[in-house]
Amino acid sequence: MSYNHNDSYYPPPPPANYAQQGSYVPQGSYNPQGGYPPPPQQQAYPQNGGFYGSDYNQAPPQQSYEPPSTQYPPPPPQDYGSSGGDFKGAKHYNREPKFRDLWAALLFLLQFALFVVIAALFIKSLPSTAFKHSNNKHSTKDFFSLPTMIMWLCVLLVSIVFSIVYLGLMQMFAGKMLVISFWFAVVSMIGTGIYYLAAKIWFAGGIMLIFGIFYALMWFSWRHRIPFSKLVLEVVCHITRKFPSTIAISVGFLLIQALYSAFWSLAFAGSFKHMQQYQSCSTHTDRNGRQYESCSNVRQILAWVFMVFSFYWTSSVILNVLHTTICGTFATFYFFEGAPQGYPTKHPTLSSLKRAMTNSFGSICFGSLVVAIIQTVRAIVRAIRSQGDGNIVLQLLACCADCILGCIEAIVEFFNKYAYVEIAMYGKSFVPAAKDTWTLIKDRGVDALINDCLIGNVLQMGAFLCAAVVALVAWLYITITRPEYNITGSYTAPIIIAAFVLAMSMFMVLLKCIDSGAATTFVCLAEDPDAMARNNPRLFAMVRETYPQVVRGVHAVDRF
Questions:
Q1: Integer Cα distance of 366 and 412 in angstroms
Q2: Cα separation, 551 vs 448, whole angstroms
Q3: What is the pTM of this model?
Q4: Alpha carbon distance 1, 82 (integer Å)
């Protein structure tokens, strides 16, 4: 059933033995057929033995009357219907999911099987010394040695420990972390810039200093957003504490992503040696009569393109399965917390994971495929730009193309993030979910909430801090061990950059429970304000006062 009282979503209060405004109402004046009791009428008290005026000359009818009591009787249980709650979101909750976008799931499994076969061939081509221990750790001439493997293991462990500690601090000090992480990032960037300038690394020092000052100035435009962001973060952390399985599953997917990244890195490194057999070289003579050798390896280039595409697609699927799982858990809380019939499942997180890995897996693969294609094209454009050989026109075109693709990628990822919430809640296919996401943002003005929420900025700053710490650990390790392959220092910069990127990705995977929870909060608020008003009245009151367009009843007509 649904109600529409005073143009709002709130259902009328249940019938009881007291008036709507708190004054007592006799039982005889209540209409048992339903609805509100009639408004109080101006009564004419008995005159000349009559009652209610001169038309009644007999004694008033006997009524069962009880004196007012300060203890009101409990309201009768509301009929929430078969959905478990009299809310639009609960009625359309994904109770009987169907398989969606099955073709995308089959295509993903096919490419992953092909990657495993190719990766096995490439890893076999690695040098035999890659997995053998040497008694002298300083005598290693090969990059693929035990000390190097230990270094990457340290990078992974430090990334995981830092991410868990940061998550724990956000759980205990949700509001303070917004301010602390902001200023700590500012101080870190300015301090790093000063250090680089002192070391005469002018370009890097200038860039870090400019970014630090820029972030410090952003405080004046961000500080008014802190109360709203603090409340959202507290609500999200409260739900993660209620469902600690969201944190546990984030750690599990973090390990999956780490293992996959390590496996992919070994395969990519082995591709250099394995694909050398397909290289073809020919000798040419230039205008001056000098001979030069030109080599090409089309198969190697195609193998690299496929591996890059496979990495982007698989990594995106891993992250989005985690994202959809957490979104389903948060949506279950918003729609069914406090309902008389309770949650539709005993283990919301496991049920959400099951749906994400089966019925909604094709939709997740579909959305991830779109992003992976854009990312692969960007990687090709960057490779062309780096191989421009001084061709200014080519580099300029490649730079413009990279910028345009970057904007398209950001837009697609933005809509995918909220489309997966719709998929987790209602079990939709990817295309309808993306369309409904656009309608939701356009009609309800959810973009104002998203722009004013600083949780994403705090997570990005935390990822930057985690990456900086891990990069420092990698630099210290390679400086202390001094492997022979890095005597000239040619491997130092690539190792630090790789450690930085790896740590940042690990951090974002582990703290996906916070980011996904915030996204689900916004979508559930726009889809069904009643559920938010019941479960989080403080947040609902702030949103209704600051962003009235979000809770306005523009979706009075059910569009599902």
A1: 12
A2: 13
A3: 0.72
A4: 10
